[in-house]
Specification:
18 helices; globular; about 45% helix
Length: about 550
């Protein structure tokens, strides 16, 4: 219905928020989100919420049904950015996340019917490579034929986009499709919920906090006005209209947006591309109350290349002797990968277990290589990075085990990489260049009921943590010696279900790491481990 009737305003949607099944699905999505364990300002984690799940969901449903739900301020945290600066995030409470997800489930299918096919950010079944692939295909043109080749690129950069979205303008855009006042009022409450940074409460006069579940969708709705402007005036012109413009010595334009990052391709002169930059500045300033950074928004020739979404796109002479578009891995991305490997294998980390270290490296390498796997000559670049990962790991093993390089190779090396009994180091060269197949530009809610969520630029976070550094090595050595057999009751289970227990508790050692030596640990089944822990706690309580 939303696809067929572009001006239709929807009503009677608020009742979905108090539907038990709808809320439960929203809760399931929140549980599966990255960062679901992080609490909001109330300190409630998803684990705490789930302890009394039915009671909490029913109370939330009651508040929504009575229209008495009040969102809490978001908790302000900062995460490091690639340029060394810090990005502010707003962490909502668990209840607020569930309600926001329930809202997203209502709003997204409506706006997916409206969203431009040139908008690739934060939507189901869309990813960065779709946007980059579109640019690469459109840059293919006959050299020397000005009408067929896009020579100039405008690299759009909106200053502090998420922090400067105008609330009243956003509500007017939402009201174009939503007629129900109760639903709009709830969105307004979230926009005005405020921010708590330490003990300092701040009002939110503008913007949508990064970290909120609805924020990416609301950000796309806001910039959809820019998409419409570019399509109506330039991108969706007929073939004959574009030919007339070329005869009049006027340029044509192509446009691609990924959230607040966008590029405009121009097949005219540099002066005409600069004029388009000024036109975009005026539109964003007057219509959307946004600021296009004059300093960071550059006009670049395609032969000089430009970086978009972490990819370097440039037109160079290919093997045929003609200029062809190439999608490459930027030098900056390679530098950051090498730095991350060095950081992960730095000398202070030698207490980490070997298995956990290999798992961390595999996640870093796998995420980075899969992101760049579809670039030009990716295999060649991956192969050049093999020695970095290999020798850094070799020296880390030597420091940890106090072994010479020949001893490291004898102990861990086989089949061109390093192994333990359960893990193998995956090197960048294991990944091969693949050809990317673009997704069809259709509404995913009409063509695929099981949408995948959006893809983001990799952060190269290992996300492998040990509660106690080195404990995985102790566990592996103990299981190799005794097998998965409980030392108290003799039960033989799988390696996954058996626990490692300290015979003498760690708190009784001056240096707790001394408790981890192989003679002070034993294998116990779950039942025996719980019983032993209970006895020790009872003794400890009597002593106190």
């Amino acid at each position: 219905m939303a696809t067929q009737h572009k001006s239709l305003r929807f009503y009677d949607l608020y009742s979905l928020l108090s539907n038990r099944d709808w809320l439960r699905v929203a809760w399931q999505h929140v549980c599966g989100n990255a960062g679901s364990r992080t609490p909001g300002i109330d300190g409630v984690t998803i684990a705490t919420f789930n302890e009394r799940l039915e009671e909490h969901l029913e109370a939330l449903r009651g508040q929504l049904k009575a229209k008495q739900f009040e969102p809490l301020p978001v908790r302000r945290v900062y995460i490091p950015k690639a340029n060394g600066k810090r990005r502010p995030l707003g962490i909502p409470s668990i209840k607020d996340r569930i309600v926001q997800e329930a809202l997203r489930m209502i709003l997204e299918p409506i706006w997916e019917a409206d969203f431009s096919q040139h908008s690739y950010g934060f939507g189901p079944n869309r990813c960065t490579m779709d946007a980059v692939s579109y640019i690469g295909h459109r840059l293919v043109g006959q050299d020397g034929k000005q009408g067929d080749s896009y020579q100039w690129v405008i690299e759009g950069d909106i200053t502090a986009y998420f922090d400067t979205i105008n609330h009243r303008k956003l509500m007017k855009l939402l009201a174009k499709r939503i007629e129900e006042r109760a639903l709009l009022d709830l969105i307004w409450k979230f926009l005005k919920a405020g921010i708590l940074e330490g003990s300092d409460r701040q009002e939110t006069l503008a913007g949508t906090p990064q970290g909120g579940i609805c924020s990416p969708l609301l950000a796309n709705i806001y910039l959809h006005e820019l998409d419409r402007y570019m399509e109506e005036h330039y991108v969706h012109l007929s073939k004959s209209a574009k030919e007339r413009r070329r005869k009049q010595r006027l340029p044509n334009y192509l446009y691609v947006r990924y959230c607040d990052d966008f590029v405009v391709l121009c097949n005219g002169t540099k002066a005409q591309a600069t004029a388009m930059k000024e036109e975009l500045y005026t539109f964003l300033k007057t219509r959307l109350k946004l600021e296009l950074s004059q300093e960071k928004t550059k006009v670049t020739h395609v032969t000089d290349g430009f970086t978009f979404l972490g990819f370097r796109i440039v037109k160079e002479v290919g093997t045929s002797g003609k200029r062809v578009p190439k999608i490459l891995i930027p030098e900056e991305a390679i530098r950051k990968f090498r730095h991350k490997i060095h950081e992960t294998l730095a000398p202070p980390t030698h207490r980490d277990s070997v298995n956990m270290k290999i798992m961390a490296l595999n996640r870093i390498t796998g995420g980075w290589c899969r992101y760049y796997q579809c670039t030009s000559s990716a295999s060649l670049m991956f192969g050049k990075l093999n020695p970095i990962v290999f020798w850094d790991m070799a020296h880390w093993l030597g420091r940890k085990r106090r072994l010479s390089m020949p001893q490291v190779m004898k102990t861990y090396y086989a089949n061109s990489t390093f192994h333990t009994s359960t893990q193998s180091l995956i090197q960048p060269g294991n990944y091969r260049t693949t050809r990317y197949t673009s997704h069809p530009e259709n509404n995913p809610y009409l063509t695929n009921p099981h949408q995948t969520r959006w893809e983001t630029i990799p952060t190269m976070e290992a996300k492998v943590r040990e509660k106690r550094p080195g404990q995985a090595d102790v566990r592996e050595a103990l299981l190799a010696r005794t097998g998965p057999i409980c030392t108290q009751c003799g039960y033989q289970g799988t390696t996954q279900e058996m626990h490692v227990d300290h015979k003498i508790p760690r708190h009784r050692f001056k240096h707790p790491t001394e408790a981890d030596h192989i003679g002070n640990v034993q294998i116990l089944c779950v039942t025996c481990h719980k019983a032993k822990t209970k006895r020790e706690l009872q003794v400890l309580s009597r002593v106190r």
